[in-house]
Amino acid sequence: MRTLDDIYEEYDFLEGDERYRLLIELGRELDAMPDALKTDATLVRGCSAQVWVYPMGEADRLHFLADSNAAITKGIVALVIAAVQDRPAADVAAMDVMAALARFDLGSQLSSNRTQGVPNMIALVRQHAARIAGG
């Protein structure tokens, strides 16, 4: 998976529909998430589309799987995951992911329908990380 800095470098260069295409591409680059992991416990509440986030790995290096039934939403969750992927669980639990994503200015780039679930995606990621960091 690309780093958030690499993604932003490309995102900043693009405009309008090209940014949508980049988000869709990011979603396609996510590691495949088996259907068996798409459960109530991994479902992100409050999103207009269905979104699932599942943590793997150990406390010293978390790796997340994520998926959505909507292409752009899947790209948005891929952006969230890029901010936290393969970091220590304690760091992810304490991280201000919204601040890390602020430069993408998603609120002005996408409809409120598409971005309303972002805080919930972040909350679930941080909740998983806090649980794993706590042992």
TrEMBL record:
Origin: domain of life: Bacteria
Q: Which SUPFAM superfamilies match?
A: SufE/NifU (SSF82649)
Q: Which residues form the signal peptide?
A: none
* Pfam families with a match to the protein in the record: SufE
| Domain named Fe-S metabolism associated: residues | 15-127
Family named by the database record: Belongs to the SufE family.
Provide the protein name: SufE family protein
